[in-house]
Amino acid sequence: MSAMTQTPPLPPLNRQFVSHFGEMGSRWGINRTVGQIYALLYLSPRALNAEEISETLEFSRSNVSMGLKELQSWRLVNLRHHPGDRREYFEAPQDVWEIFRRLAEERRRREIEPTQSMLRSALLEEASSDDERHAQQRMQEMYELIEKLMTWFDDVQRLKPETAMQLMGMGAAVTRVLDFKDRLIGGKGKATKDAHSTEPPAGS
Fold first, then answer.
1. How many angstroms separate the first and last alpha carbons of the chain?
2. Nearest alpha-carbon partner for 92 in 81, 104, 78, 105
3. Cβ(7)–Cβ(58) below 8 Å
4. What is the DSSP code string of 31-94?
5. pTM
6. pLDDT tens for residues 109-160?
7. 85 and 50 in contact (C-beta within 8 Å)?
8. How far, in Å, CA of 171 to CA of 157, rounded?
9. pLDDT for residue 167
């Protein structure tokens, strides 16, 4: 039986990224340990098993096991098996857009959809007071905004990764076009209002 090889330490640049990702993950509502495990897998040129992850990050095997289960529930890691090796190996998706898409889908399922469901139920209730009618009006505005955002999200999800990246790169150009449209419409509206004004010109 071959001797076990010791997992090499992380290079300083990699460790900096892993540490930062763990700190940022805690701000996004992700366990710090889970964030660091994912950052390690994201940078790794090959799939890693739980023992390698534990040794590299100096985490207990139980923490690594729980972290990997959490990442699997988010569909943010892929499971691999090597011929003749009973251990499980994990890797992050290679495509950054695919990572973003899976993360966005899970956040939608866990956070957005329950809110949509609650709003739909609240809007179907019969308002019994002015306060409740006002509340429903505000909830209706929120519901319509979420619906529009989710429709846009579904449209973007259907795009090819390269097309989606091009779309995001057009952000500044699209903003300029919409700003020009607003100013154009605003100018026309002012001209129409002036044309229909019944007030005599100044000095007449």
1. 106
2. 78
3. no
4. -HHHHHHHHHHHH-SS-EEHHHHHHHHT--HHHHHHHHHHHHHTT-SEEEE-TT--SEEEE--S
5. 0.66
6. 888 999 999 999 999 999 999 999 999 999 999 999 999 999 988 887 777 7
7. no
8. 17
9. 67
